[in-house]
Amino acid sequence: MNAAVAGPSSSSLPTGKRLCVPFRAPGASPVLAHLYLPTGLSASTRVVVVMHGTLRNAHEYIEGWTAWAERADRVVVAPNFDHAAWPGNGSYQSGNVLRGDGSEAPNPEPGWAFTVVEAIHEWIRDELGLDDRHFTLWGHSAGAQFVHRFLLFKPQAKVSAAIAAGCGWFTVPDLGTRFPYGLDHPSLPFGEHDARRYVHAPLALLRGTWDTTRDSRLRTTAGAEAQGRNRYERAGHMLRAAKRVDPTSNWRLLDVPGVGHDWTGMAPVAQSLLEEG
After folding, report:
1. Helix ranges restricted to H, the chain
2. pLDDT tens-digit profile of 4-51?
3. Which domains does the chain have, with CATH numbers?
4. Which residues does 107 contact at the CB level (< 8 Å), separation at least 6?
5. Above pLDDT 90, what percent of the chain?
6. What is the DSSP letter of 215?
7. Among 244, 232, 143, which Cα is nearest to 198's?
8. Residue 79: helix, strand or coil by DSSP?
9. What confidence tier does 276 reach under pLDDT thresholds 50, 70, 90?
10. What one-character-per-residue DSSP string does 41-65 give?
11. pLDDT tens across 59-97, in order?
12. Taking the model in full, what pTM does it have?
C-alpha cells in the first residue's frame, strides 16, 4: 500500500453504512475519505470515486450515492478536499499541479490532488482485496473540473470511465490556448501527442438543459467567456475542441433534460451510465 492511512483496517470497516476515514498520502496534505461499502461486498465489487463541488461537501455527496451503491454492488468513496488543507481553486479543481505562488512552477507529483485520489483508490482496492484494478470517476461543478483535468494529468491512471457533470469551465485540448483554459504553459510541456491522448480518454460530459444561468459562481474571465456564456454552452465548446484534435475522439456529450446546476439531478443519470458500462 502506497499511502499512510490514519484510520481502521479492512477488518474493522463495516458494510452497509457510511464511514469517514482520515487519509494522508506521502507528500500530500490530508483529506477525509467518506466511504460506503455495500453489504454484499466481495472481491468482484467495483469502486466509484465521487468528487464534490466548490462547497467541499463530500459528506453530502456520499448520501446521494449510497442507495445506488448498495443496489449496484459498488464501493463509493467521496474524498473531501477541505479549504484549510487545499485552499483555492488551484489546489482542488486544478489538482494542485502548480505552486500558485506566482512562479508558475510545478509541485512534486506526490502532492497533487490527482495523485491523492489514485492513492485512495489503491488503498481501498488493496485493503478490501478487490479484483478490479480500475475505478470510475464522477464529479459535479468544481468536481467536474477535477475529473476532466485528472484525465489530462494522469493519462496512465486506472480509470475505466469518467463523467464530468455541470462543469463551469474547461481546460480544452488546445495547444494554442493558455493554461488553465488550454494546454499552453511554460512548465507543462504538453504536445500534440498529449492532446490526442487526452481526447481519447473515457470521458462523458453531462450538461443540464436548464444549466444556463449566469450565477455568482460562474467564472467570467476572458478565457472562460471564450468557451461560452454559460455551463451548457461551455460543455459543447469542450466537445468541439476535442473533435478538432481528432474527429474520432470518444468523448461523449449528454444532455440531461430539465436539470439546472444541481448535482442531485445529475447523479442518477451518472449512475445509470455506470450501470451500462
Report:
1. 58-63, 66-72, 88-92, 113-128, 142-153, 192-198, 222-225, 231-245, 263-276
2. 443 344 446 899 999 999 999 999 999 999 999 999 999 999 999 999
3. 10-276 (3.40.50.1820)
4. 96, 97, 98, 99
5. 93
6. -
7. 244
8. strand
9. confident
10. --TT-EEEEEE--TT--HHHHHHTT
11. 999 999 999 999 999 999 999 999 999 999 999 999 999
12. 0.95
Question: Which of 204, 173, 202, 208 lies closest to 190, judged by CA?
Answer: 173
Distance in angstroms (rounded) separating the CA atoms of residues 159 and 197: 14
DSSP summary character for residue 134: -
- The cell for 44 is 468482484
CA dist., res. 7 & res. 34, Å (int): 12
Beta bridge partners, 188, equal 185
What's the grid cell of residue 241?
Answer: 475542441
* Beta strand pairing call for 46-51 and 18-23: unpaired
Cell 467541499 appears where?
56
Q: Report the candidate in 165, 170, 260 with the shortest Cα–Cα distance to residue 209.
A: 260
- Taking the CA atoms of 85, 23, 188 and 196 in sequence, report the sign of the dihedral they define: negative
